[in-house]
Design a protein that fits this description.
TIM Barrel, alpha/beta, binds NADP nicotinamide-adenine-dinucleotide phosphate, 11 helices, two-stranded antiparallel sheet
């Protein structure tokens, strides 16, 4: 079956069906070999939409960190290896991230699950609708699959924000909405607002170097059947986990990189989507291996000890 010929709906349905019937297999192939198509991990949103458990972050893309052609190749490489969820924000590089991503995804828009964000200082009046229109224009698309409030604002604003998101959803400019950087108390406040329960996800920092949400938010989201979207899943620019000897050892045993092991750890529960960023095709190829990598209980134990 050629995934390139499928619409996103068909691909999602196929992934969901396969996820139900097939076990995730341990990846013992070399990192430069494509992951087995049918073993890729997926995550289901509350509305039934199924996405790959690994997406691609876009914070620094289109801003000169790598040459444009290299970043374009990296993004396309990730998409072709199944990392079809792409995360950006209206404020990344003052819109440059969205402007870079737009033309790359335009010819393949129906394969992409596109996520962008609105800022807390854009919520007054019809600010969310205007910010969304600007993002759609920069991304050269007529809809976002998911629109997130980037950072928490005081809870008194939640009813207005949810109403604005729901209006965009009714107008089909966004398919779903969610939040980012919310703690459990803020999630509880959100659930008390009319339609607050329609929140699709909370995007938060989560990696072996930042395990704070395991205490409260991760179990809270699991209880509410709400996937968590993990940003900085490799630890982010300043706390990258990939040089850790335990990660490297486990990677060597599975025939993959330390980065793939770190990402497989983040997405192992089935309720977490990780969005590593890379503007390097080689790194993107390494990262995609995590989609089909199953860590052993011994691996998990060793990582827990190495990253207490
Ligand atoms: N909601 C929020 O508040 C928020 C906050 C931060 C980030 N985010 C989102 O999350 C995404 C990812 O977060 P992040 O960029 O902070 O952290 P990250 O994905 O943990 O780390 C990115 C860094 O890792 C490097 N890298 C990626 N794959 C690698 C590999 N296989 N081997 C070695 N190095 C590798 C990248 O460099 P190369 O490009 O050279 O590969 C880059 O320097 C962002 O792009 C953004 O979309 C959201």
């Amino acid at each position: 079956m050629n995934k390139h010929l499928l619409s996103r709906r068909e691909f999602n349905a196929g992934c969901a069906a396969f996820a139900l019937t097939l076990p995730i297999i341990s990846n013992i192939a070399a990192a430069d070999q494509p992951a087995p198509e049918l073993a890729r991990r997926t995550v289901k949103f509350p509305d039934g939409t199924v996405v790959p458990a690994l997406g691609q972050g876009g914070w620094h893309l289109g801003q000169g960190r790598h040459p444009v052609a290299v970043e374009t190749e990296a993004l396309n490489m990730g998409i072709s290896l199944g990392m079809t969820l792409i995360d950006t924000s209206g404020n990344y590089g003052h819109g440059q991230s969205e402007q870079f991503i737009g033309p790359v995804i335009a010819p393949q828009r129906d394969r992409i699950y596109l996520v962008s964000k609105v800022e807390g200082d854009e919520i007054e009046g019809d600010g969310i609708a205007r910010a969304c229109a600007a993002s759609l224009s920069r991304l050269a698309t007529d809809h976002l699959d998911l629109y997130l409030l980037h950072w928490p604002v005081p809870s008194k604003h939640f009813p207005g924000i949810v109403a604005a998101f729901e209006k965009l959803r009714a107008e089909k400019k966004i398919r779903a909405w969610g939040v980012s950087n919310f703690d459990v108390g803020q999630m509880e406040d959100l659930m008390r607002v009319p339609d607050g329960h329609r929140c699709a996800t909370n995007q938060v920092s989560f990696s072996l170097n930042d395990r704070g949400i395991e205490r409260d938010l991760l179990p809270w989201c699991a209880q509410h059947s709400m996937p968590v979207m993990a940003y900085s899943p490799l630890g982010g620019d300043h706390h990258l986990v990939i040089s850790n000897p335990t990660l490297m050892q486990i990677g060597a045993a599975h025939g993959c990189s330390a980065a793939a092991v770190a990402l497989a750890w983040v997405i192992r529960s089935g309720n977490v989507i990780a969005i590593p960023e890379s503007g390097s095709p080689e790194h993107t190829r390494e990262n995609a291996v995590a989609l089909s990598l199953a860590l052993t209980p011994q691996d998990i134990q060793a990582l827990a000890a190495a990253f207490p």
